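S1.2 Input.
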Amino acid sequence: MITLVTTLLDPDRYPKSELANLYLSRWQIETNLRHLKTTMGLEVLHCKTVEGVLKELYMFAVAYNLVRLVMLEASRRQKVPLERVSFVDALRWLRDADSTTKLTPLVVNPARLNRLEPRVKKRRPKEYDLMNKPRNILRKALPRKKDKA
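S1.3 Output.
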């Protein structure tokens, strides 16, 4: 049983069943964000300028939408719902494809109706300390090569 708390109090405009379905559909949003961040490597941006970061984000958006387009075509050809087509398999196909490559059937994930998962951290924290001093001060504290000899 799920307890859903909301400020949408009008039961005629916002029936319980519709709110429950909306809540359960959030799983797709979290899955898609995970694909962007983890599967495609968007957890850390590498550019140092605003322009560079924007370019990096645009390229991730283009690549993500290309993968979703491949998934859409695969779902149409394989006659399965789009959300069941494997994102990772579509990404791999796109990575290895050239202009003459025919779209092969992609992996279809099992249906997971009413899937509920615990909200927990999956990864261990990094073994390094947090950066709590300015970088120039931390650099000065690093051992120098001549100090090691």
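S1.4 Remarks. The radius of gyration is 22 Å.
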